[in-house]
Amino acid sequence: MDHLMISPTSSSSLVLETPPTLQQKLQFLLQSQQDGWVYAIFWHTSYDDNGNLFLSWGDGHFQGNKDTSPSTNSHNYPILTQLYNERRKVRKGIQSLINDNDNDNSIMDHMSSNGDLNDAEWFYVMSLARTFPIGDHHHRGSYSLLGKAFTSGTSIWVNSKHELQFYNCERAKEAFMHGIETLVCIPTSNGVVEMGTDVAITENWGLIQQVNSLFGSDLIALSHTKQPNPIQFFDDHNISFADIGIIAGVQEEDNSTPTHHDKRKRSETRDNDISGVKLGSSYVDSEHSDSDFPLVTASNAMLEKRPPKKRGRKPGLGRETPLNHVEAERQRREKLNHRFYALRAVVPNVSRMDKASLLSDAVSYINELKAKIEDLESKLEKESTKKVKVETADTTDNQSTTTSTVEQTGPSANGSSTSSSSSSSVEVEVKVMGADAMVRVQSENTNHPGARLMGALRELEFQVHHASMSCVNDIMLQDVVVKLPQGLRSEEGLRSAILTRLEH
Amino acid sequence: MDHLMISPTSSSSLVLETPPTLQQKLQFLLQSQQDGWVYAIFWHTSYDDNGNLFLSWGDGHFQGNKDTSPSTNSHNYPILTQLYNERRKVRKGIQSLINDNDNDNSIMDHMSSNGDLNDAEWFYVMSLARTFPIGDHHHRGSYSLLGKAFTSGTSIWVNSKHELQFYNCERAKEAFMHGIETLVCIPTSNGVVEMGTDVAITENWGLIQQVNSLFGSDLIALSHTKQPNPIQFFDDHNISFADIGIIAGVQEEDNSTPTHHDKRKRSETRDNDISGVKLGSSYVDSEHSDSDFPLVTASNAMLEKRPPKKRGRKPGLGRETPLNHVEAERQRREKLNHRFYALRAVVPNVSRMDKASLLSDAVSYINELKAKIEDLESKLEKESTKKVKVETADTTDNQSTTTSTVEQTGPSANGSSTSSSSSSSVEVEVKVMGADAMVRVQSENTNHPGARLMGALRELEFQVHHASMSCVNDIMLQDVVVKLPQGLRSEEGLRSAILTRLEH
DNA sequence: TGAAACACGTGATAC
DNA sequence: TGTATCACGTGTTTC
Questions:
Q1: Which helix (H) or strand (E) holds B84?
Q2: Dist CA A168 CA A257 (whole Å)
Q3: Looking at CA atoms only, how far is residue A439 from chain B in angstroms?
Q4: Is A351 an interface residue toward B (CB < 8 Å)?
Q5: Which strand D nucleotides have any atom less than 7 A from protein CB atoms?
Q6: Which neighbouring-strand residues pair with A440?
Q7: Complex ipTM, two decimals?
Q8: What is the 3-state secondary structure (H, E, C) of B305-344?
Q9: Which residues are paired to A39 by β-bridges?
Q10: Shortest Cα distance from A452 to chain B (angstroms)?
Q11: Less packed terminus of chain A by CB within 10 Å, N or C?
């Protein structure tokens, strides 16, 4: 049971329009990645009775944790196997029964309240009865991540529980409840590939490309990609531009004709992935590589409903600079949006889903937190001073400085360091002693200074001989003795090298 | 010297186009406000040699602090009086000398580095030599607030130092450096009224209205309100809408309209007020009336420099719907931006001034605050339980002592944990003590075990209280005391969670 | 039908 | 020179 397979192609007699190699593709996909992906699901597009497009289970592969710690495997849950088999048998029936999301949600919720059973396996198994609408009443973020990925044609990569929790998307919330930490949705021509795991995995452009090449050639059921409601511009043609985009992406490699915006329905994005990958080189979140943004594959154009206006390209455009510009702007927007999501994830009680409300809610929330901290600190201080009788008084000093982190913003004026996004006032001392060096770092105890310093030392490939870190009153003091590689002996150089690496 | 008056109308023979009552108006303005405004300046429009519009000193009134704390008054700075008089005498000469902003900035900077002298008085006095371009190379925010207020026709009200610091506007920065906290720029027909003080004053619509009625009737030099480049929509009429707006605002007393605050820059909006006021009713910043947004009076857009693009209006436009749309979008943007400012105001150490950085900094700051609160709460709880005298003794005692005596606590052979795995020569022990836990990891000194462990703890969001790692004979021994988030208390669970995360 | 909220492409600008 | 950010006007999609 280590490798669950819920596949209509492998063991079921149900006939679906997906080619028989889907299962192998997913399997291959999972096994070719060295990251600890737990499962992969292919959601394919279908039409419901009303003619609305939706995503339903196409195929899936469950790999489990790489370490296969015994407690997380399914043999501990015989009921799981039973339910799994049962579900598989009557999947079609169940689907019609619990197509309604609310019902399904209640099931999930009940399961998650169960404490021990809410792991990725449950999530995976329960997924096979789920469906997700597409393009319908999507209130901008309220719909499923899967649907969003499909309609927008952009891959979505969420790799923190906070962010996951934020999305007011049912699936993301459920994933969060079941311990999923990284959730990826990659659109294909006729569906979406979803992968998930319970650890954090940073964005991986290669994976998306691999999915593209694996699933991009499924040119079956192209009609699915067409919009349910007729597009007035091209309904005389039977092939939607989206389809053309797909085809072009597969066999044409091309691109050309950027310039005009689009809104790119989806699909087409892929051809840009192939042809214009270099654009992706600038994708990196330049400054702090928080890796918090979405790896949008997107862009392109050309297959857009075009009000019969100006035909032909604008005169005199070099064609690459403006394209980069729009692409860059797109990325900027996407990045900004993901920052917004991240903010939503940490701010509770967001009154309304719109950005302005979020921002002011964040402000008031921060003020709330500050007030609470001040309150607690004064309380604590009172307690401690009451209890510790005669103290050296530097504790209160430290406390007061940490409380007033706000005030630091004005002058800033901290030597070197500063500028780090997270913590302020980082002090680094380096003392070189022959082939060894002693590094002393003093900072606030925020953003895991220990991990940051150790990460910095790892990046610099310094072997650690000894280290000791202590945190008192929110001040973290770290002393490390490292062995230096030869050639690097300047104390100031070491210091700045460490300093610059401390910011993530 | 309590009331500095730098007025060409009161004591100078220079003839300017401002009416002789300017000084009294400013004076009246300051004294009629009960808020502690320190100074008021009227900047009037002029053309430089190149025919470009710019703002220069029209008149000013310095009132000083209401509390008139002796240390902040000018008699402490005889040099100030001297320089003031000197400046006043040779104002025109100085203007031509230090018209260059860079020079002036350096002067201001030098002054501000002076510690004691950089108060509002200095700022006020130095202002009289300043000029500010209008409508030229306006990078939207990089130009002066004054220019922005004038061209946009919107009043700008900044009432926090953070926000002030943010603007990449020279004047705002200078004001910040000189201790100004609230800075207001109110456009008039032929200039801008600027008021400032070193305390925070919330937006006051009445003040803006008062300025409008005081300075709105200066219908002299109307041509100044006209853009240097002709406005194609109305250049057959000689009266700009702005002026009409002013007149209407003056003699109409307006009021009525409590409903629609702000927004609408005089002119067009005002005539909208007359005809279709109800539209403004929905302007209210519905939910929280933080009053955090900009009191833009504006709209208009039609006295904006309009690059000679499309001549003639778009065909078939109803003229109100699309216009309202752009206006609404403008307002939305403005609102959003002010929310951003507010967020900047409460988030310390904003690494860079751009929105994306602000957002992620806000997120990490919130997490910081949360962590700190949790920490404080647990600390407080600990304190209080400790204070309840000798309780059950064992467990609580251990908790209190762990921080300092980490290494002694577990000389291996602890009952729980241990045992299993340890295949790849990495052993993990976990001992939970209340809200804290001790983690001991023994492994080979390869692949930077310190960084791996710290990274794992960061992923799990465990705050490190104390850590010590030593390497002997290529064996790395690490002991860490961490604070656990609530809900995670199982030693075995912790152990496996750490173990799985140790492999990268 | 219009108000509100977004995303998009575009031009400007700063480092 | 490219590579950022930003604001603007516009089209679209909600309710």
A1: helix B78-89
A2: 36
A3: 14
A4: yes
A5: 2-15
A6: A429, A479
A7: 0.38
A8: CCCCCCCCCCCCCCCCHHHHHHHHHHHHHHHHHHHHHHHH
A9: A62, A196
A10: 8
A11: N
